[in-house]
Amino acid sequence: MRRTTVRNSKTLRRSLAAFAIGTLYMAPFAPAADEYVKVDYPASKSPDELQTPVTYVLWIPDGVKKLRGVIVHQHGAGTTASIEGSTAAYDLQWQALARKWDCALLGPSYHVTNEKIDLSPGGSELWFDPRHGSEKTFLRALHELGEKSNHPEMETVPWILWGHSGGGIWSDVMASLHPDRVAAMWLRSGTASMFRTKPEFPQPTVPDGEYTIPTMANPGVKEKGRGPFIGSKTTFEEFRAHGAPIGLAPDPRTGHECGDSRYLAIPFLDACMAMRLPDKDSADQKLKPVSMDGAWLAEPLSDTAVPASEYKGDAKQAVWLPNEAVAKAWMEYVKTGAVGDTTPPPAPISVSVESKDSGTIVTWDARADFESGIGQFIILRDGKELAKVPEKPIGKFGRPLFQSMTYHDTPSQPLPKMRYVDEGAKPAEQNTYSVITVNSVGLKSEATPQR
Asked: 79 and 87 in contact (C-beta within 8 Å)?
């Protein structure tokens, strides 16, 4: 096992830019003072341990003295998912959720060698069924990451699980194994029930504790008739029959890809974390029960939700939503596949300027808009717009963003830098520069002070 701790510096850029496993290559940009910690484990030859190599990359926000939880962003099955899922910890918008709650953001990457969704050598089921070793390795990684980051509480704090496809199966099974650790779950096109036809995948026993976890099942409408949609709906119906706080949010625009699901996933998990995370600095790490005060309900596969007290149907068959704000976002999402935003993003934190023979290099640090991420930046010279970075954001999967999204709700590689070179600058003119953040719906922040 190889362990690496990397902080923001030239060392960070050299170490992670050089990191490669198979076809994986990353060249991340790290905002000032945030910390990334990485651990690698080789495949075990023991049949009761993980037989797939795995890398865990952990992001910890600056200034956190004691973590309150770990958000796990788990990719799905296949080689592409493994590669593209490797950037999860560098996602600026998911970092915004983690920062709000003093949580770490963890992006595991299982290095499968083929596209087989079974237990054959190199297949993905070897890891997305935690009972074949990934549970043990995950717990080991939390210990190692806690040691390396000087956050020993990593071993005991709650988990917030997001999983896509095979990652959804992994999250669902992990919740059955450790229901007392899971504060909330988002299952994108993946639940354990979708594998009921697989004889090598015994269905996990669902403990009563798992029925207390607030959960959202989120299949793509274009998956109707297929396992991910059927499994999502089945899990929703069975859990809801047991009184579980679970919702169903079919994405009208997508099939198996994640699309713009993050714009509902993040506020949903935020609301659940507000209800369930132990109080800050509390010695007691026991999760709080879900509060039903303020809950909204909706008919499954409908697009209208109402306060629970006004719902006329059978509550045990209804979509559960934690509060009015999430209910309104859900109603918009199941109609359009996205959620709007009316609040401008925060301004970039700082701007640095350096004159070179090739021009003036402008760099900055910025934090994502919690509700809608970062679309692009506007560079101002002497108070006038000079350029946009990127000039045209990419939106192949979902909204155009500064960090363009992959099929798997992760930033595309190579990761962009917050950097612009003004090749037309003349040192004798002593220009000043500032930066504006534009979120994904086009709203602008205030400009940073000129430098």
From this structure: no
